[in-house]
Amino acid sequence: MRILVHTRFYPSVGxxxxxxxxxxxxxxxxxxxxxxxxxxxxxxxxxxxFPFPVSHRPSPPTWIGLLRTHDVFVHFNISLRALWPxxxxxxxxxxxxxxxxxxxxxxxxxxxxxxxxxxxxxxNKNIAVSEAIAKxxxxxxxxxxxxxxxxxxxxxAEQARPKDLIFVGRLVSDKGADTLLNALAILRERxxxxxxTIVGDGPERAALETLAAKFALSDQVTFAGLKTQQEIAxxxxxxxxxxxxxxxxxxxGIVALEGIASGCVAIASEAGGLSEAVGPCGITFxxxxxxxxxxxxxxxxxxxxxxxxxxxxxxxxxxxHDPSCISAQYLDVIGAVVCRS
Length: 341
Known about the structure:
By secondary structure, this protein is an alpha/beta fold. It has helices at 15-29, 60-68, 111-119, 131-137, 177-189, 205-214, 229-236, 254-261, 274-278, 290-301, 304-311, 314-319, 323-340, and strands at residues 2-6, 33-38, 54-56, 72-76, 93-97, 125-128, 142-143, 163-168, 196-199, 221-225, 239-244, 265-269, 282-285. Strands 3-2-1-4-5-6-7 form a seven-stranded parallel β-sheet, sandwiched between helices. The protein has a six-stranded parallel β-sheet with strand order 10-9-8-11-12-13, with helices on both faces. The longest helix has 18 residues, at 323-340. The mean pLDDT is 95.
């Protein structure tokens, strides 16, 4: 099959970008022809070469030409700017939903998000990356969870884990790093002082550093800044617990999978798709509840047996998110849509 994928893509960095890259690479390995189209501008200085062509911000004639030369259009999250070519060229259309189409944490939708959901009715098939999304958008979907990259995220040869907690993500308010710092302040009052490494950068970094100083946590918290995927994997291998304290309802949560694959137990916010990503390999707490998070951290750090029990099902859980497994499920859907067209 000739598969045309529209998605956010490199040099943009994030969950959708990671999933798109992994799936496109797997489809190519399995003999499919793949082209990625993205609204993200190209990085002229980049030397990264993908095993499939990537068209950055194509002109309208190029867009139409791409659609004409492919068998199916796979669209990661509905974009009003990317559906217009289907008005001129009829192709089977698969919509993959990586989000809730909301404009705030309360789940509100403006006219644009509402229109996007209405347009999904024109898709030949809808896929949701979590049960949470399928339930929220109220559209018949096949649920196919996200994959992770097992070539990067895996348990290292060194078994010792000298560090306690790790947070990985953009330093923005929705990711809840401030909730984690508040939890550490609560634990400090209880004479428990776990070490925390914060990996990532963003507009909230200065405020978070100020908050850590205010809570007298500077000796416990290390701001590591931006790191490559390989560097993040190596750092994860040094930690016991990955904390994903998002305030908003995460659609899925690949970072939790990556942490589990690196040998960490996960503590994550319970709402949204994060609990599905964590599965049996961690515990959850109510979004934004710093006291509950502090209790969960203390519970695990004080109980090595419980930590071992949570790590035991990791291999079976991760196997369900292996790229070959997930890509095959996608190809089942895509192939059926093409055959029916």
